[in-house]
Amino acid sequence: MNQYVDIDSLWKVLVAGLAGGVGLVALFAVGLAGLSTRMPSNAASRAGAAGLAVAVVCFTLVVAGAALGLYVMLKK
Amino acid sequence: MDASTLLLGVVVITALAFDFTNGFHDTANAMATSIATRALRPRVAVALSAVLNFVGAFLSLKVAATIASGIVESGAITLTVVFAGLVGGLAWNLLTWYFGIPSSSSHALIGGVVGATLIAAGSGAVKVDGLMSKVIVPAFLSPVFAALVAIVGTFLVYRITHNVPKSTRSRAFRLGQIGSASLVSLAHGTNDAQKTMGVITLALIANHTISPGAGTPFWVIVACALCISLGTYIGGWRVIRTLGKGLTEIESPQGFAAEGSSAAVILAATHFGFPLSTTHVCSGSIMGAGIGKRLAEVRWGVAGRMVTAWLVTIPAAALVGAGAWKGADAIGGTGGVAVVFCAALLFAGSLYLAARRIPVTHANVNEEWTGTLAPRKERVA
Description:
By secondary structure, chain A is mainly α.
């Protein structure tokens, strides 16, 4: 079995894939949820401001994650 | 000397033709879900993907990795073997395109080369270990991985955003899709254009045009980048339709989760040196996105046909590759190669004409899925 499968890199791919594929996608969703608390009805409220902050942080992380992914792939 | 130059020319042209089919066969990988959810207009999507494939082809700092290294003995590779392998890959790519099945271009090429090597140099020249660990095992694992990631991603996305108004949600995820689809396109360019560059470099070395240590000549990089992006722009609408509409009905949050999963798995696999097929990853992701929302939404019939095609890809391309080598060898010399080349052209031409009878284009790619590839309007007769 092991001569055919590189278990070591297999695990790494699965973990990195989950981190990037699930993590970043979920972050984007959290950002969107944060943004939608800032709907016109409560734009000025505290919840709205917090939501905006969450959104900014999340979207920044998503972009940074994508950039890191590209960088890591190209550096190889 | 003249004859060998001619032979080399035919090989290079065949390789570029393969590169072209690689492009239009795989447009679907990056863009099918974005087109299906209308995140991008069909023409815009293929144009964006073409540009990113072109850029991607130049981006990789790695010297083009030879596709067949570690799978067949390098001593067994002659120009005719390379040519026959390319014909095998080409034929399979065109056939699966006609039926709208997303199958792996790398597998088609590997199958063709393995088949040609088998018949040219015997079974000893094929490294079974390499074939298993580099091709067969990853082929089983990659769609599973991608599906797993996409299932979890899709589930979380719907969970997290269930309070967000539906229209806001689908608009936002369409925007996100543009980013994730671009990432997949770029990754595709860096990975897949390399394959053809590797094949042409291999042919140049086999013909002693360049020394074995030399890198890929610049004109090869430009030609490959151009061919793959041109192919991408022409767009394999038949495959796009199957992936975007046939496999499952997709909404923009699912599309985003699917593309995010594809991008992450492809990038991770490239980094850790685990050879995955872009096609298998993307198809797996889309299936996962369907499962992650509601199990019943995946059309298992379509999925089954797709997986069957994956299993058949290598043997089928190998058969064609072997036949092409045998044919060229029986007739002999450059003439034999020329005859096989013409036969391949004939095959490609007739498939093209056949496809024209029930065309799938940018205009009808999103028609409702009616159980077959053919859009409903065309099936009235």
